[in-house]
Design a protein that fits this description.
The protein is an alpha/beta fold. The chain has two domains: about 290 residues, 3-Layer(aba) Sandwich (Rossmann fold); about 55 residues, 2-Layer Sandwich (Phenylalanyl-tRNA Synthetase, Chain B, domain 1), CATH 3.30.56.70. Strand 1 and strand 2 form a beta hairpin.
Length: about 375
């Protein structure tokens, strides 16, 4: 095996292959080295928070699977940083990764963790879990079906997608082939892509007569991340599918563009977000400030309608200088509309105001 170094993330020590890394971007695989991407520490922070929320909410022992663990960073952090009655299986099919996982479990003295070296699909066919986390290199599509079948009713599936160029419409044919949905490459592409991803997962769950609740979802840097609670029942599946639709973007882009099918329901649960906010205050996280900022944006946008507007895009169309975002939000509220900031861009806002009202306010400033 290549040289290994020891580093700390959150409150956990990790053994990782000594290779070039970056604090941003998707990272890259190197031959004979176990993959580790430090840029995903925010994502792993949220896994710790969500696992803690879920364990707190149960009156039984929780069984967690980190199914595509690589060096085990996510699973080790959950095992070491989450308190309560649970066990975690940290799995990767690569023997070099398996060795690093075992070293991490031993070094951090995690008594409720077990290393595994099996194909993900085998693991989910042999055991049932309450919480399954999958963080693949690229798309989660090949793994979602097995994850859904390996989950107990009321359990959580967390998954990452790093094929954001596909979901955001850079490669529309790939998106149609992979997710059976039409994307749209525009300023709102990250929300559209996130909703395509959730919509696909909803349809995958429905194949097995299961419905979904979206607990939390976000698009950050090079990846998208989703936490779903899955419930057994044909009626629950049908109710969830009612939120998966094709959408015409005419009200937003002033031309006929049909996208989807996408998830048109909420992107988060208010109750879960508020709980995570409290849990985050007590945890030693790798990106605490970023976590708190993202949670704040999610709480603001949770009850807002589909899609958003960007001040620079509207200002460019109207040949005006971009106004302060806080000023636009204040004016929209004064006119009786709902308005908030959003996670998708620092200069973006969501509102239920018609397009013509928004443009009038911009012109009046």
């Amino acid at each position: 095996m290549s040289e290994v170094k020891l580093l700390r993330e959150g409150d956990t020590f990790l053994f990782v292959s000594d290779h070039k890394t970056s604090k941003r971007g998707p990272g890259r695989r190197e031959k004979d080295k176990v993959f580790y991407n430090p840029a995903m520490d925010l994502s792993r922070d949220f896994s710790v928070l969500m696992a803690q929320w879920f364990v707190n909410a149960q009156d039984k022992k929780v069984k967690i699977l980190d199914g595509l663990a690589s060096c085990g960073a996510r699973g080790l952090r959950i095992g070491n940083e989450v308190e309560g009655d649970f066990e975690i299986i940290i799995n990767d099919w690569d023997e070099k990764a398996y060795d690093l996982i075992k070293r991490g479990i031993e070094f951090n003295k995690i008594s409720n963790a077990r290393a595994s070296c099996k194909n993900f699909h085998v693991v989910t066919s042999e055991e049932k879990f309450d919480f399954i986390d999958i963080d693949p290199f690229g798309t989660p599509v090949p793994y979602l079906d097995s994850a859904i079948r390996g989950l107990k009713s009321g359990g959580i599936i967390a998954f990452t997608a790093t094929d954001t160029a596909t979901l955001c419409g850079v490669y529309p044919k790939t998106c149609i082939r992979r997710y059976f949905a039409i994307p749209f490459h525009s300023w709102m592409m990250h929300e559209i892509g996130l909703r395509i991803l959730i919509g696909y997962a909803c349809r995958e769950a429905a194949k097995h007569d299961r419905g979904i609740d979206v607990l939390l979802s976000h698009s950050t840097d090079h990846y998208m991340r989703v936490f779903l609670r899955i419930w057994k029942g044909a009626k629950k599946a049908e109710n969830s599918l009612d939120n998966v639709k094709k959408v015409n973007l005419l009200p937003y882009v002033n031309r006929n563009v049909e996208i989807g099918p996408i998830w048109t329901g909420k992107l988060h649960s208010t109750e879960v977000l508020q709980s995570l906010k409290k849990i985050a205050e007590e945890k030693k996280l790798s990106k605490k400030k970023e976590v708190e900022k993202l949670l704040k944006r999610m709480i603001e946008e949770v009850d807002m309608p589909l899609f958003f507007y960007k001040t620079d895009v509207i200002s460019s169309e109207l040949s005006k200088s971009p106004p302060k975002l806080s000023r636009i939000i204040k004016l929209l509220k004064e006119e009786g509309y709902r308005a908030s900031r959003t996670q998708f861009a620092d200069n973006a806002f969501k509102t239920d105001a018609p397009r013509e009202v928004i443009y009038r306010l911009f012109m009046d400033l």
